[in-house]
Design goal:
heterodimer; A: 246 residues; mainly alpha; 2 domains; two-stranded antiparallel sheet; 65% helix; globular; B: 205 residues; alpha+beta; Nuclear Transport Factor 2, Chain: A
Chain lengths: 246, 205
């Protein structure tokens, strides 16, 4: 099973690398599946407006800020081991050791990561296989909208699958020595909770974009592509040229 | 002791003011940020006056003609003179409406200039800044500042790696693809005429 998945991953990544045109943030975004993507996007919007957003509002209303902060930290912390692995794969050993040290100290002294004792913990510092493939020079490939997960690309979807199977936290859960029942369910549950928590922190921003976009699908697609390019290329110094028309 | 404090203060402040003096674009953004905060934080001011003041700062400091043209992208060429001038008028109106509303729930955020880099292949300068807020991480914003005449104007704002001008262009491009430039003009008219009743699909609050 593991072997088949690995082989599939390799093929998918290679296929992306070979077919994806180089894409800068200023270029148009390659979206050959737009009709399907728009359909999934509309489904996600419906789910968000009817279920997820209202639940997120209740979640943020009920829980005190102190608890929300602890959860936010714990959700970042549980992602550190995956970041460590990927920083190594990206050849960034400084970030890899920082991330590892943060995980060890924060998971113990910081009570399961609820407190950032070590300092420097941040969502922006997390990295996964989507980033790693990007750093290796794999183009993003076609834009994809995944059910419930939202905006992605072929490269980032393969990255997500790789994250799922190669996350040390998941591997530890699945390991027989710990004897955890239903490890995959637990792991998926943690990831869903993490996603929900992240969504709940963006209520205002998403509302604003929804209200002020003429075509919300196109706006989200553009933001996704720009965010990914900025994350992988580092700075936004290569932002698009705004010509002088005078 | 007093003297020591004074020396320390000078030593602390010196690098900041020196850095600001070195790049005029940085002091420009720094001052603009302070002007906006003064305006928004004044609780005594009447709502209408504040809106007028904000709108003035916006139209004076953002090169909306350049941004508007960039945002229409390749469709600018296809547009007639009449369409262009109507579009520019509506675009300006939309920006003022959207940003006035965005800044209406100001809650103590401060803009801190952190440095600048020249924009590649142009005379523009990216002024790096952070918007600091309570109860949340700082937001990184880079302002693309252009020399216009004797002063400066902003031609783009890049928020956490996302260019507002590029995002707006993608948004408009999708509308033009569906209904042409006339479709975009109609949509802008609709939005600016009655922003509260904007048909925001399923996302009614």
């Amino acid at each position: 099973m593991m072997k088949t998945i690995k082989r599939l991953l390799t093929v998918a990544v290679l296929a992306t690398a070979l077919t994806a045109p180089a894409m800068a943030a200023s270029e148009e975004i390659w979206d050959p599946l737009e009709p399907v993507n728009r359909y999934v996007f509309a489904f996600n919007e419906g789910m968000d407006v009817v279920f997820i957003r209202p639940l997120a509002e209740i979640y943020r209303f009920i829980l005190p800020d102190f608890v929300l902060d602890r959860l936010e930290h714990a959700f970042i912390n549980i992602r550190e081991p995956l970041a460590t692995v990927n920083y190594v794969l990206q050849g960034d050993l400084d970030e890899a050791s920082d991330s590892l040290l943060r995980f060890v100290v924060n998971s113990t002294v910081g009570l399961a990561g609820m407190f950032d004792v070590m300092g420097g913990q941040s969502e922006d510092k997390l990295t996964g296989f989507g980033d790693t493939f990007g750093v290796w020079g794999v183009g993003s490939g076609p834009y994809l909208v995944l059910p419930l997960i939202g905006p992605s690309s072929l490269r980032d979807t393969v990255g997500l699958a790789a994250d799922y199977y190669a996350d040390p936290v998941g591997i530890a859960l699945r390991d027989d020595t710990f004897g955890v029942d239903h490890p995959d369910t637990i792991y998926t549950g943690i990831q869903l909770a993490r996603g929900f928590d992240a969504r709940s922190r963006l209520i205002k921003q998403v509302d604003d974009l929804r209200r002020n976009s003429l075509d919300f699908y196109a706006t989200v697609r553009s933001i996704y592509a720009q965010r990914r390019a900025a994350k992988i290329n580092g700075t936004s110094g290569d932002a698009p040229e705004i010509p002088d028309y005078n | 002791m007093k003297r020591l404090t004074a020396i320390l203060l000078v030593a602390l402040l010196l690098p900041v003011s020196a850095a600001l003096a070195a790049v005029p674009q940085e002091s420009y953004i720094d001052k603009l940020g302070k002007d906006v905060v003064v305006l928004l934080a004044d609780k005594e001011m009447a709502e209408a006056k504040r809106k007028a003041g904000f709108s003035k700062l916006l139209t004076q400091n953002f090169d909306l003609k350049t941004i508007g043209r960039f945002v229409l992208g390749r469709h600018w060429r296809d547009a007639s003179d009449a369409q262009r001038s109507e579009y520019q008028k509506l675009f300006e109106k939309m920006v003022v409406t959207v940003y006035t509303q965005r800044f209406s729930d100001y809650s103590g955020q401060q803009l801190v200039v952190t440095g600048s880099v020249p924009a590649e292949g142009s005379q523009d300068v990216f002024v790096k800044s952070q918007i600091r807020q309570e109860g949340g991480p700082p937001v990184a914003v880079e302002w693309r500042v252009r020399s216009v005449g004797k002063g400066f104007k902003i031609v783009d704002a890049v928020v956490e790696g996302v260019s507002m001008s590029v995002t707006q262009r993608s948004d408009f491009d999708a509308i033009v693809a569906q209904g042409g430039v006339d479709g975009l003009i109609a949509e802008l008219k609709n939005r600016t005429a009655n922003p509260a009743a904007a048909p925001d699909a399923i996302a009614k609050k």
